[in-house]
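Hi R.,

Here's the chain you asked about this morning:
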Amino acid sequence: MAPRSPRRTKADVVYEALQSAILAGRMEPGQHLRQEDIAAQWGVSQTPVREAFRRLESEGLVEHSPNKGVVVRGIPWAPPPPPMEAIVRRWDELIHDPESIPGSDFP
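And here is the predicted structure, written out as tokens:
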């Protein structure tokens, strides 16, 4: 007998739909999300929507502001540093803190 998969809640369904829309760019940064509208769209009460908003906020995808409500922040992404910059930074760290190399007897 196969193990039962965990039951998806209404909050999970709303959260996954909103997360997918934000990550796919179907919801623009700065777009306001109304709890009532989302609840009506998914045919759920406002409680699962609030829970989904909290989860999205913990991931940095939305932001809740007093008197503004929930606003899409977008994808929290910054480009990686250029490779040479990372090498120079690491070299500087190694020179100033040789103990940062595990198992090394670097002078």
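One quick note: The chain is about 45% helix and 10% strand.

Cheers,
M.
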